[in-house]
Each structure stands twice: as C-alpha cells, then as structure tokens.
Known about the structure:
The chain has 137 residues and is α+β, with helices and mostly antiparallel strands. The chain is 42% helix and 18% strand.
Amino acid sequence: MRYFCIMEESQRQKKIASVLQRDLVDILQKAATQGGMQGILISVSKVKVTVDLSVAKVYLSIFPNNKAKELILGIRSNAPLIKHELAQRTKNQLRRMPQLEFFVDDSLEYIDKIEKSLKGSDNPISDPNLLDKRKKS
C-alpha cells in the first residue's frame, strides 16, 4: 500500500516560480510582437516548480482560444531557446535553470462555459451530463 503526501509549496519553490513567471511574460510577449502575431495575447497564469527544482510547469492563457493549440506547439518546439533566454535573465538569481514544460490554462474557458450553462436553459445543476469533464494537465 502506498501513501502519497501532498506537500505545500516551499518558499523557495514559490520564489523561483515568481521569478520565472515574471521573466517568461517578457520573453513570450516580446516573441509574439516580433513574430508578427498582432492581436494575440499570451499571459503566464501560473508556474509550478517541482520539489527538486528540476522542472517548471508553465500554464499559459492564450487569447483568442482558437489559436491556443497552434501557439502552444510553437512554444514547446522553441522551449530550448526560451530556456536559454530565461537562463540569461536569471543567471544572478538561479544556479540551475529548471526544465520548462508548457501547458494551456483552460480555466477561464471552463469558467465561461459554466456561466453560460447556468444562464441558459441547459442548466448543469438539473442535468450534470451537459458539462464536459475537466481535462487534467
């Protein structure tokens, strides 16, 4: 029998996550404007760093939503370049740069879907099968 312990993030994890989040916003916004992607908004909604500080999971909100899949694939393919740029910016704060994993943060879309369902005739409270199950990433 295995027991799993859910630990709260340490102060160090939180600090590294906030440093990464701040610099990733700059890097991704600069890449979007230089890449000719006018009208696309990329925001870093959350960064989670593993306990051993080796992996950083980066959750991105992309607007408009229909461009999210295409953009996340492009960002993932450029992860080594993004990691290098991030390492240059944080070299005085971090000894080792964690591996970056990018995910689409669909929480705003999920909340919007719930609100529309509650306002409309297809109320999920009376019929819970109307709402999609949330995807875990």
